[in-house]
Design a protein that fits this description.
With about 500 residues, the chain is of the alpha/beta class. About 30% of the residues lie in helices and about 20% in strands. The chain is built from 14 helices and 17 strands. Strands 1, 2, 3, 4, 5, 6 and 17 form a 7-stranded mixed β-sheet that branches. A 5-stranded parallel β-sheet has the order 8-15-9-10-11, with helices on one face. A 3-stranded antiparallel β-sheet has the order 12-13-14, with no helix packed on it. It is globular, with a radius of gyration of 28 Å. The protein starts with 13 loop residues before the first helix and ends in a 28-residue tail after the last helix.
């Protein structure tokens, strides 16, 4: 095995890495010069979400000299994002070498964090990143950069107030705050919520859960568990149920075959990251619709984690049509006329993009322009799910469905999974998150500068610090000789 060359911080511990990071940031003049005019009682930017997306967005803005920022997260400190809640995979899907939210700083990568503690040999032996370890890394990331996340704070409502946005808060802080710009860095369900199919809605809530719920897996010991779906969250939850002693777990899968190829992984590149958003609608739709239609397969390790149990079963061609309660059980009925009786049902049905599900917007959610409002796909490329994605501007901001109805939406940035149809995978997944943050920061900076252009112009006029004192030179007279008739100097 070819060994990675050891660096001076290998095995030296996190204090050594933090010292190196501090020095690197100083070399790059971090944080950037504070250039935004201030208004008392008004934030320049509020970021909703203190997980990976929110933190790298904060770092990008701070690097660009935007200092008046607040980061709010409804979770308690150390529990931001899904990593210690509904994410139940053993390891991350992403390769360990991806730089993730490091924002161009080698000493801020997971690799640097890991090698500083465990050394090069251990890094070479590591296959995939354990999920809880990724959360430990993100906690260190927050501490090393001193990111001022305000935990336990929920944003319940967003509404315009003149040129500003007023946010209504609850939790550890209540009341309202004003901000010029708002960034939704809210992850996978940031522009919608869990996908709850209609066939489950009449089943009593004690008989089912969505994979994003807080599930009591100990209560499933000895039970028959049906898992609807076969994506990553479905197999991870199936594995948890099996490892907690479920009598049997059956994947009930609408598709005829297991999806095997992650199509998006095959075309991932800087070109795709940079070029996707500039493509015409038909090409953007085609890429995303094909990815949706072929479906991202569950990770190899997660699938083996299920199939190694003899009481795990995969049933294909089983499209669920309805589920009814029978005694203390749930009977799952399929389109082919068969059924299965379970003691508990887990929906591994993922998330939906649906701005109307975001209560922060209130009725204004209906004013957000969606892909289905602007693009009609050709036959064979239809997708109701894709059509509900917001049709964003190229700076991550929402657009109005009807001009003039909600112009304040141009001050709200969708830096989460909801941006993927319009701008690509740059605001939620590990591979492109730093590119997305740089893009976001430039967009916010450009808008703030344009809004304050009169102030910046006046500052230029008023600037009077001399570069030269006046004693750096001596003026001399140029003595001209007599000129010839042709106008040449004699």
């Amino acid at each position: 095995m070819q060994m990675t060359e050891a660096s001076p911080i290998d095995g030296q511990g996190l204090p050594a890495l933090e010292a190196r990071l501090k020095e690197d940031l100083e070399f790059l003049c971090y944080p950037g010069k504070d250039w935004v005019p201030q208004s008392e009682g008004v934030s320049d930017v509020v970021i909703i979400g203190g997980g990976m997306c929110g933190m790298v967005a904060w770092l990008a803005l701070k690097t660009g000299g935007m200092q008046n920022i607040r980061v709010l997260d409804r979770s308690e400190a150390g529990n931001e994002g899904p990593w210690l809640s509904y994410a139940r995979m053993e390891t991350l899907r992403s390769p360990k070498v991806l730089t993730g939210p490091a924002y161009g700083h080698g000493s801020l990568t997971f690799q640097a964090w890991y090698r500083a503690q465990f050394g090069t040999a251990a890094w070479e032996e590591l296959d995939k990143i354990p999920r809880p370890m990724w959360m430990e890394y993100l906690k260190w990331y927050r501490e090393a950069l001193d990111i001022p996340i305000e935990n336990g704070v929920s944003v319940d409502k967003v509404e315009p107030e003149g040129d500003l946005l007023r946010l209504t808060l609850s939790g550890t802080q209540s009341g309202t705050v004003l901000t010029r710009k708002l960034i939704f860095a809210t992850g996978r369900d940031g522009t919608g919520g869990p996908n709850i199919p209609g066939f489950i809605r009449d089943l009593p809530r004690d008989l089912w859960a969505h994979s994003a719920d807080d599930i009591d897996f100990d209560a499933l010991k000895g039970k028959r568990v049906a898992v609807i779906g076969v994506g990553a969250s479905a197999v991870d939850n199936a594995a948890e149920a099996l490892e907690h002693g479920a009598a049997e777990v059956r994947h009930l899968v609408r598709r005829r075959e297991m999806p095997r190829i992650n199509k998006m992984m095959g075309i991932g590149s800087f070109g795709f990251t940079a070029g996707y958003a500039a493509l015409p609608d038909e090409w953007r739709w085609r890429f995303m619709q094909y990815s949706f239609a072929t479906q991202t397969p569950p990770p190899h390790g997660s699938t083996k984690r299920v199939s190694r149990h003899p009481n795990a079963y995969f049933h294909f061609g089983k499209e669920t049509t309805r589920i009814e309660k029978r005694g203390t059980s749930a009977v799952v009925h399929f389109a082919d006329g068969t059924s299965y009786e379970a003691d508990f049902v887990i929906l591994g049905t993922g998330f939906v993009i649906d701005p109307m599900a975001r209560t922060e917007f209130g009725e204004t959610a209906g004013d957000i322009l969606l892909w289905q409002d602007v693009y009609t796909p050709p036959e064979g490329e239809e997708s109701g799910d894709l059509g509900r994605f917001p049709y964003l501007n190229d700076d991550f901001t929402f657009r109005e469905k009807h001009p003039g109805t909600a112009p304040w939406l141009s001050n709200v940035y969708c830096f989460n999974y909801g941006a993927s149809a319009s701008l690509g995978k740059v605001s939620g997944d590990i591979p492109g998150i730093s590119d997305g943050a740089a893009w976001l920061a430039r967009s916010v900076a450009a808008t703030l500068y344009a809004e304050d252009v009169q102030t910046h112009w006046q500052a230029m006029l008023d600037y009077d610090t001399p570069e030269l004192k006046g004693d750096e030179w001596e003026p001399t007279e140029l003595e001209l000789g007599a000129q010839t008739r042709e106008g040449q100097v004699a």
